[in-house]
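Tokens in:
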């Protein structure tokens, strides 16, 4: 399936903006570039973001880097953040501001996180095999609205963060969810408490009327968190707002055995998309060669499929990852001892 508004690039040699970022980001990005080089002739241009950019320029995302990303055919991101830049100062520059600024500046309002446990890893999940076998779901998370982008601040001893959504913001993310659904859209909200959720529910119901072949159900977020663990195979597409999607997609990652296995795509209408693993910068394992690059490789596959329209290359890479796992590849997070380099070599060999 292709995404409306995300057209294959027209350059003869596709230009990929590469943002290694912080922590293990540079390690998994180096591995991804090896795999990308084995798949074809791509022009890879590296830029700084997050903490690395703060150290170099004082800004988590410079205007020049944002412009370069907009002009590329696709953007690959490693990870941002780390204890070096942690602060309780509300005015401090944070690495995460670079990621939020990139999403907003590129108009990337939809985050797609597919969750499909690999057959070889069904026993790696903390849940029983029979509970997760057959899981094949997609989390569609609204990415540029809600509490992460609302007014915030402090007044004396009171802090506040404002959550707001417009009908137009809800409509466009709902359209993406219904286009990807095969049978069911589960719209997750907190309509028993939040006014934004009530507007969300009303708007999603109107959009559902344009897709009569797809069933719609509403589910409160606390129930959804429970059902993801109790009955993950019941879901097809989970549609939700920014904060809820951030939490639920990380929970869903554990169905695959490790958050180190989950890729994601962030898309808009036209222009390049942003592709990144769901996991963070993992500062505790930097330099130990224990970082699992498979979520990064999966993000490359999503980039090939949805960003560049290279379906055959995406399928080749996804098959190579599955073959490597079937042949016994296991990094530390999924119960093995393979290093980042070992995992990269295994996938390259499977290619």
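Residues out:
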């Amino acid at each position: 399936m292709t995404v409306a508004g995300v057209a294959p690039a027209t350059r003869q040699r596709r230009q990929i903006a590469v943002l290694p970022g912080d922590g293990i980001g540079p390690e998994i990005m180096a591995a991804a570039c090896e795999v990308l080089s084995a798949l074809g002739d791509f022009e890879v241009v590296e830029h700084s973001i997050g903490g690395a950019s703060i150290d170099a320029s004082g800004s988590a995302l410079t205007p020049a880097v944002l412009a370069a990303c907009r002009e590329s055919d696709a953007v690959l991101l490693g990870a941002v953040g780390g204890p070096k830049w942690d602060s309780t100062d509300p005015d401090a520059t944070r690495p995460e501001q670079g990621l939020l600024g990139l999403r907003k500046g590129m108009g990337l309002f939809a985050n797609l996180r597919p969750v499909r446990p690999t057959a070889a890893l069904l026993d790696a999940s903390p849940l029983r095999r029979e509970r997760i076998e057959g899981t094949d779901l997609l989390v569609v998370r609204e990415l540029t609205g809600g509490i992460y982008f609302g007014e915030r601040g402090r007044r004396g001893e009171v802090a506040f963060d404002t959550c707001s959504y417009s009908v137009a913001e809800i409509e466009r993310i709902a359209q993406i969810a219904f286009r990807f659904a095969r049978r069911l859209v589960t719209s997750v909200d907190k309509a028993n408490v939040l006014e934004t959720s009530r507007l969300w529910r009303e708007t999603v119901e109107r959009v559902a009327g344009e897709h009569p072949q797809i069933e719609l159900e509403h589910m409160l977020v606390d129930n959804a968190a429970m059902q993801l663990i109790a009955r993950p195979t019941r879901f097809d597409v989970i549609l939700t707002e920014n904060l809820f999607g951030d939490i639920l997609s990380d929970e869903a990652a554990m169905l695959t055995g490790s958050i180190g296995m989950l890729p994601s795509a962030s898309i808009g209408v036209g222009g390049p998309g942003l592709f990144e693993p769901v996991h963070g910068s993992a500062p505790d394992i930097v330099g130990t060669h224990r970082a699992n690059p498979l979520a990064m490789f999966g993000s490359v596959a999503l980039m090939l499929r949805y960003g560049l329209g290279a379906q055959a290359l995406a399928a080749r890479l996804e098959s190579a990852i599955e073959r490597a796992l079937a042949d016994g590849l296991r990094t530390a997070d999924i119960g093995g001892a393979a290093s980042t380099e070992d995992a990269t070599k295994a996938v390259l060999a499977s290619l």
